[in-house]
Task: inverse folding
């Protein structure tokens, strides 16, 4: 059985678990408290030299890191990776967008506000995080409002899993999603899939 | 013929051009001066709603964005994408690492120092960029010093193209690569490939 090293509440870990549930892949989940440095111990750094969750341990004892690379690996050959070369590249395009423009702003704002003691210490960082996070949400809104139900091809793919992770909890980072009706409709669409689980489940 | 919208000196654009040269793919290159906002015009935003280079225009007039998704698309089915599922995912793992941990620190430090007027204005940002950039370089060094010549599988792949783009010019961002002998040897290895071009070529 595969093992997911994870931290409760992480959107990056959640998207991996969500995909595995929807694919019916059994897995063991090991909680690593990043606030206590449990991903920076010598033992953990042997699993992932970058010291991050999620980290996937395969049945043969090898490891795979980076949430979106894990999504790719697990979904390869399933309905969640488009067959068409262009659609496949578009899925990856949105996943790189997620890790470069979306997560570093939306997830970080949420982390500082929800997980750190005395979040008021980070008040000076919030305007920049919110400005850039809203830019990312606006790019998503433009895509979805243009008539697309999903991000790559015409059906749910790993790009949607990748973006859903932190978008659906963006409110916890101080982002008002009322500005983005197409994003809200897409969130409801993803959450209505059979096998859906909640981020805290 | 495909068109690459690019900005001279961008490591993200360069890695796409480097791959296309090595694959023998003819392409037209269109310079977009990001310092003059040429990727934020209404016309450019129709090509890429995120307003970034590189953007690839395919022969049928559709567009693909995000440098590492473009690498994937162009290299799919060639020697530069590993066949093995795990090696393929490891290539993507390093590419996501590049966009999350490496580029936002190493490329940004270089951009502020080399491209912005009065770089001393950003002096307060440099220690953080250098600390996190060195952490990324140390992760690369650990991998390569462990006996790997390349980042995914046993030969040159898109993961190497992705990481080479900004690593080989990290010195321009104030990073001393003398600390990383395995990274330096890998840089020489990548640069020795037939069809290599320079970033300013």
Result:
């Amino acid at each position: 059985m595969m093992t997911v090293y994870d931290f409760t509440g992480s959107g990056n870990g959640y998207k991996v678990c969500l995909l595995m549930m929807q694919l019916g892949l059994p897995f063991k989940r090991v909680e690593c408290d990043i606030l206590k440095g449990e991903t920076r111990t010598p033992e953990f750094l042997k699993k992932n030299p970058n010291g991050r969750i999620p980290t996937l341990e395969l049945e043969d004892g090898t490891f795979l890191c980076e949430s979106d690379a894990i999504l790719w690996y697990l979904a390869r050959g399933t309905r969640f990776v488009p067959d068409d070369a262009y659609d496949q590249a578009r899925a990856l395009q949105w996943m790189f967008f997620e890790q470069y423009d979306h997560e570093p702003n939306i997830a970080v704002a949420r982390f500082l506000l929800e997980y750190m003691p005395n979040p008021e210490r980070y008040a000076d960082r919030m305007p920049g995080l919110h400005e850039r996070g809203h830019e990312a949400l606006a790019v998503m809104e433009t895509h979805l409002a243009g008539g697309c139900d999903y991000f790559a091809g015409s059906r749910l793919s790993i790009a949607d899993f990748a973006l859903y992770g932190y978008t659906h909890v963006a409110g916890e980072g101080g982002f008002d999603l009322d500005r983005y009706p197409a994003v809200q409709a897409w969130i409801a669409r993803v959450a209505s899939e059979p096998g859906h689980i909640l981020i805290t489940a």
